[in-house]
Amino acid sequence: MFSSTRMEKLWLLNDLFVNPDYRGLGVSVNLIEEAKKLVIHTKACGMFLETSKSNTVGNNLYPKTGFELNNDSNYYEWNAS
To answer: Is the C-alpha dihedral spanning 61, 65, 71, 72 positive or negative?
Structure first.
């Protein structure tokens, strides 16, 4: 993606999923850390993601990996189907 306010590339982390057989082994943290390396390697300004309020696992994981919750944003979605 491209941030017009920052005039830099911006990454979207979408659909992070770990097979249930491998959960609790640090796989999700390792995936996020590798994604962060790609952000730096591509000289992007950062990365963002969105998850539902009911996703307790994700909502606990993301702050532990350095993500900050943006309480000012408002997300809308429209589905054609």
So the answer is: negative
